[in-house]
Amino acid sequence: MGSTKNVFASKIGAILAAAGSAVGLGNVWRFPTEVGANGGAAFILIYVLSMLILGVPIMVTEFAIGRHGGEDVTHAFQKMSGGKRGWRWMGLLPMVSGFLVLSYYAVVAGWTLYYLFEALMNGFAGKSPDEFTNDFVAFSSDTWQPIFWMGIIIAMTCAIVALGVQKGIERSAKVMMPQLFFFILVLVGCSLTLPNAGLGLSFLFSPDFSKVTGSVVLSAMGQAFFSLSVGIGCLCTYACYFRKDVDLMKDSFSVAGIDTLVALLSGLIIFPAVYSIPGLSPDAGPSLVFITLPNVFQQVFGGIPWLAYVFSLIFYLLLVLAALTSSISMLEMSVAYFHKNLHLSRPVAAVIVSLVCLALGIFCSLSFGDWSEVKMFGLNFFDFFDFLVAKFIMPVGGMVMCIFLGWVVDERVLRAELTNNGTLRSPLYSTYRFIIRYIAPLCILLIFAHELGLAWLDWL
Ligand code: PFF
Fold first, then answer.
1. How far apart are CA 331 and CA 323, in angstroms?
2. Ligand 1, from 47, 97, 176, 226: best to mutate by most atoms within 8 Å of Cβ?
3. Would you say the pTM of this structure is higher than 0.90?
4. CB distance 21 to ligand 1 below 6 Å
5. What gap in Å lies between CA 409 and CA 295, rounded to an integer?
6. In the 8-state DSSP scheme, what is residue 212?
7. Per-residue pLDDT reduced to its tens digit, 319-357
8. 331 lines ligand 1 (CB under 6 A)
């Protein structure tokens, strides 16, 4: 490991690793669920807008802080602030968040791995709709099975992170991301040929603005946050490994573009499939990909069993790949801290962090079964972790980073970082700075307020 430098060897490796973090279950699982629940196309429009005015600027912010520091997030904040030691504390943000987010994300990632295994074993063949529902409920509420599959996901993630920045994170992104794109395109092609695909398309692409409420707007912004992995210090961690010639603004647009494209393509897979069977509803919620879809695959391709088999297999392979590229970035957040600040070797840090995540993950997994009644602040462990990360840490972290870069950091340092010391033209610089100083903190405050359920937002 000694010779592996802590830097992504190529520009494309850096983009793919960041895109790998962004593209995940948030795109293939959470996005369709949110679109289904919030009325379709109008939600998508607002989501794309949120990406542009909120997601991309915060991503640029994280990239700038991380790349400027180069070492790890702790040093990055201190260096960017002009040496103020107080800002070192921000290094704790990704370290703590890494544990929290991986612990519950790995539960759902484990489910996808189990479903991939089932697909491989042809376990969906001949099942009735009720059986799909019962089997999912039985599996997710079981004590040991989901823990076992979650353990495998965490072990795979640990092995990749232990290999280091170039040999582990960058190489795996270069291998997995192209496969992921390929599988998505194959599935979109198949899905669009299904009967009634047009109904799914019109749900996705004809906006019904009467469905837009304040709550829909704010959910779309929240989804943009989660999907881009911003606000939590994850992309800041990766940016510490960026080379000095990376164009941070351009890459942010590339990563956000890839992320949005994958979310939309996932919609193109899922909604035509759901509409191909009369009576199924696009707003089935989180169970959409674990109950509704395997059922759809069996029913629509029922006459051609091998097609149902291949379609299911590719779909769950896609989910597993998407989950893995994101979970790698989650583990790296904490591992980087232990490796740099506590001087543990990478493999040792990776194993320790993984074991703690596994232990916390067990609590989250049991939330669906034995411990469903164990509550913290009225939420089970899984929902509590999700709430803490997506609805508290991400908005607050994003806001602090914007305020840091917009108001604390010397403007010349920021400009030099974003123009690569004046060698790049940066026509959007002023717009970007205006957004991080005023617009983004204000919008985040709104999301935050909404998610906490403040009643005064009801008028929106
Ligand atoms: N963006 C990932 C997804 O869409 O699945 C989720 C995620 C990754 C959230 C990394 C937070 C994070 F730090």
1. 12
2. 226
3. yes
4. yes
5. 53
6. -
7. 999 999 999 999 999 999 999 999 999 999 999 999 999
8. no
CA of 74 from ligand 1 middle (Å) equals 21
Asked if residues 212 and 42 have their Cβ atoms less than 8 Å apart, the reply is: yes
Parent domain of 348: 4-457
Residue 33 CB neighbours (<10 A): 19
User: In this structure, are residues 383 and 100 in contact, taking their beta carbons and an 8 Å threshold?
Assistant: no
| Residue 39 neighbours by CB under 8 Å, 6+ apart | 208, 211, 212, 216
Give the number of the atom of ligand 1 that is nearest the alpha carbon of residue 25.
5
CB of 234 sitting under 6 A from ligand 1? yes
Question: DSSP letter string over 386-441?
Answer: HIIIIIIIHHHHHHHHHHIIIIIS-HHHHHHHHTTTTTS--TTHHHHHHIIIIIHH
**Atom of ligand 1 at shortest range from CA of 228:** 1
* Number of domains composing the chain: 1
Token output for 174 = 């270069």
Whichever domain contains 310, its CATH number is 1.20.1740.10
How far is it, in rounded angstroms, from Cα 11 to Cα 44? 30
Residues in the chain: 460
Q: For all residues of the chain together, what is the average pLDDT?
A: 90
Closest C-alpha to ligand 1, atom 11 = 229
Higher pLDDT, 84 or 217: 84
Q: Which of 25, 329, 386, 387 to mutate to test the pocket of ligand 1 (most atoms within 8 A of CB)?
A: 329
The label of the residue with tokens 């994850």 reads 234
Q: If you ran DSSP here, which 8-state letter would residue 376 be given?
A: B
Q: Is 246 helix (H, G, I), strand (E, B) or coil?
A: coil
- Max CA separation in the chain (angstroms): 67
How much is the average pLDDT of 216-225? Answer: 82
Is residue 22 within 6 Å of ligand 1 at its C-beta? yes
Q: Which atom of ligand 1 is nearest to the CA of 233?
A: 13
- Is the Cβ–Cβ distance between 127 and 298 less than 8 Å? yes
